[in-house]
Amino acid sequence: MKIVKKQYIIWIMIISVFTGSCVEPFEIKTITFEDALVIEATITNELKHQEINLTRTFQFEEDGPSNESNARVRVVDDVQNIYDFEESTPGKYLSILEFSAQPDINYVLEITTTNGRSYSSQPTKLTGITQIENVSASREISDDGDIGLSIFVDSFDPSGNSRYYRYEYEETYKIIPLFWSRLDAIIISDVPPFEVGTTPRTKEERICFNTLFNNEIIQTQTNNLLEDRVSQFPIQFVSKDNPILRERYSILVTQYVQSLEAFTYYKILNELSGSESILSQNQPGFINGNVSSMDDPDEKVLGFFEIASVSSKRIFINFRDIFPGENRPFYFFKCNFKAPLLVNPERPNSSPLIDLIKTNSYKFFDINLERTDALPGRYLMVENPCGDCTELGTNIKPDFWVD
């Protein structure tokens, strides 16, 4: 759903009216609304359960799109193979069988929605196959003067038949909380006489992982070059102070070879999603994809059915490898401590420590050996994100992760 979000923005702006001035707050309201099907469909040459996402446009004042459920979705090729899709989660359709797009074969997407309306794409062929040669990382200074980590990609098609490229990436990073303890605080008695103890943690809360997905359109083309070569093309820049670099960081870069039509569609979509384009007096109008209604030629359909060859490459980076001798980024949170008393001296029937444990917002860190007025209790407790990594990620190590 990453690319289609930009289509929503453009579509909403086209059918909205803006009131107000440049110096006063203004309210954006949708005064006309056209319900339209939104399609995100990229079939690749990977052998897998291919995925197609269907949603519908939404009004500006609404929270987000609604999923298009219970549709009949299939892909048909020109040798009469039919690949049926079934809905796995609302709006997300996966092919029942694994398949991969093959060269020199036309594919057509066919959709029938629950209201009986039918949609079909133009015939589309697989693009040229080009592998990523290298993904690299280096210390760079951004145009804004920010020091950070730059990610670059290289690829080469000696046949010269690819030319148009789109990139996606996903970042995965390790999380180790600053104040993890092997012990948990437990309530033994929550009535007088109050009693609290500790017990070994039974859940992995020290090492976790989190994954972020890019939400931008990244493209390049080599038509103006002598060779069909992508060289040191920038994919991502991460500030040196970003805590995702604090421990170990990995990025998976995926390259899609696009047709000229797909490249142009996404390029226009990306250009028009910028605020200067959308808010200009010359509204861009509807962006035609390659899917249309079989019932009404004037019906608007958003999205593009793409058949693309794909190549992926992952690299791992330790902070010290790129920034030797430099201070690591600060943790994700400023960690606050509490050390409540077991018994409130003014209200002996209440226990501030037990009340805090019951909130599940603080973790036991250590015995408080240096008590102060601010931290008077025996148990030193720290906010969950600083003592429990599952607050920030998953404790399940990804299959691809290498330490």
Would you write up a description of this structure?
With 403 residues, this protein is mainly beta. The chain is built from six helices and 25 strands. The protein has helices at 4-14, 260-272, 275-278, 319-322, 352-359, 384-387; strands at 17-18, 28-29, 37-44, 51-56, 66-67, 72-77, 82-89, 92-95, 106-112, 118-121, 124-125, 132-141, 147-156, 164-175, 183-189, 195-200, 208-213, 218-221, 229-239, 248-257, 291-293, 301-318, 337-338, 362-367, 379-383. It has a 15-stranded mixed β-sheet that branches. It has a three-stranded antiparallel β-sheet with strand order 12-13-19, with no helix packed on it. Strands 23-25-24 form a three-stranded antiparallel β-sheet. β12 (132-141) and β13 form a beta hairpin. The two termini are 31 Å apart. Residues 9-26 and 275-284 have low confidence and may be disordered.
Q: What do the pLDDT scores average to?
A: 90
User: How does the major sheet shape up?
Assistant: 15 strands, mixed
Radius of gyration: 27 Å
Low-confidence stretches: 9-26, 275-284
The end-to-end distance, rounded to whole angstroms, is 31 Å
Helix proportion: 10-25%
Structural class: mainly beta
Strand content: 35-45%
Number of strands: 25
Please give the count of helices: 6
Q: What overall form do the CA principal axes indicate?
A: elongated
